[in-house]
Amino acid sequence: MTQWQNTPQEHNGVMHNAYQTHHTMIDTHMAQYIAAETKRQQDHIELIASENFVSRDILMAAGSILTNKYAEGYPGKRYYGGCEHVDQVEQLAIERAKSLFGCAFANVQPHSGSQANQAVFLALLKPGDGILGMSMDAGGHLTHGAPVSLTGKWFNSVSYGVNPSSHRVDMDQVRDLAKKHRPKLMIVGASSYPRVLNFKEFRDIADEVGAFLLADVAHISGLIVTGHHPHPFPYAHVVTSTTHKTLRGPRGGIVLTNDEDLAKKINTAVFPGLQGGPLMHVIAAKGIAFQEASTQAFSKYIGAVCDNAVALASALSDLGYALVSGGTDNHLLVMDFSGSDLSGQTAQHALESVRITTNKNGVPSDQRSYVQTSGLRLGTPAITTRGFMVSDMEIIAQCIHQRLGNLDGPVDDLVKQVEQLCQKYPLN
Ligand code: DSN
């Protein structure tokens, strides 16, 4: 058992497995669905790069009585009575977020990463203003100006991509587009970019055109706080993140800055601009996650996440698979099926049938639709939390290869292999 795994804990003489709490629910109908999902999480190899398994403390806080409390406003300035304890909860979460990310201001109320980004847009922009973000096929996120998102509909959105052969961000294109369109906000960050982002270069360009720089570090925040990826401060004016990906906290978002004036605008944008009552149970869980992420064990965990990603990428490459950018510097990799008969959608479904969970994903210059896609994104945060090690990546790569190389073949042996791996690293 590795030191960053969750372990069953004794409490009042009873061993508690945090992932079995549904056993005592009275609503047996709903409990049966939660039980089924618990079993799915236990029995499948979870390779979705944005998912993870939280600790017992985080699960308990997220399921606590704090869910009962309304607390519109901010600590010390609420619109409801009885907030003296939730004020302490939120203040502690804020202080821990500031300390973890080394910044002066933190808003821990956004219900999600998308809402954290929307808060920045509301704080800094007017409808029709220009934004410059990464296109989705290059790895960008919906809220970075995709045409189908509010951010693409209400703002004048221009997208940069990656170099067609290296698949690295094309900084010349970023500079050219910034000079041509003079956006008010530039966004650096991605959902499926396997390489290091250069925040300083983005800031230099933002300064050249007088733009704000937003770093959306949702995917890599766990790497950033442990020194496994360069830090967005002092380059970004504002940083947003989710709290549930590599950071391994509850589902939610945060907004961070060092600028007092921006902090005030962001607070007003989150509440009352976008949201009503904050989710105090989730804020407590976020606070616990910030504390956990500041430990040596977490740092070792993130190191293992990256080692596993590199090992999985190299095992798949050795088996002949093309990867976007040829590999990875972080926690994720994207298999590239461009030019083959296999689509991301078919690959995802095929792997699901042998209990390997992934998601189809666009690749640079993808010729297929967003529904089909030519890529498959794989990530190692969740399996590493369970304890999977570098030596297991070869086995996972072989399982993927056997399934994708024989789509109509029998699945029983593969399911058995996956079952054995999952039993070796139980989810507690
Ligand atoms: N949907 C998230 C992901 O899977 O990366 C991004 O918000």
Write the layout of secondary structure elements.
Layout: E1 9-11, E2 14-16, H1 28-43, E3 45-46, H2 56-62, E4 73-74, E5 77-78, H3 84-101, E6 105-107, H4 113-124, E7 130-134, H5 150-153, E8 156-160, H6 171-181, E9 185-189, H7 199-209, E10 212-216, H8 221-225, E11 238-242, E12 253-257, H9 260-274, H10 280-293, H11 296-318, E13 332-336, H12 344-352, E14 356-357, E15 359-361, E16 375-379, H13 381-386, H14 390-404, H15 412-424
Parallel strand pairs: 3-14, 7-8, 7-9, 9-10, 10-11
Antiparallel strand pairs: 1-2, 4-5, 6-12, 11-12, 13-16, 15-16
D-serine is lined by residues 50, 113, 141, 191, 218.
Task: Give structural attributes.
single chain; 428 residues; alpha/beta; 7-stranded mixed sheet; 16 strands; binds D-serine
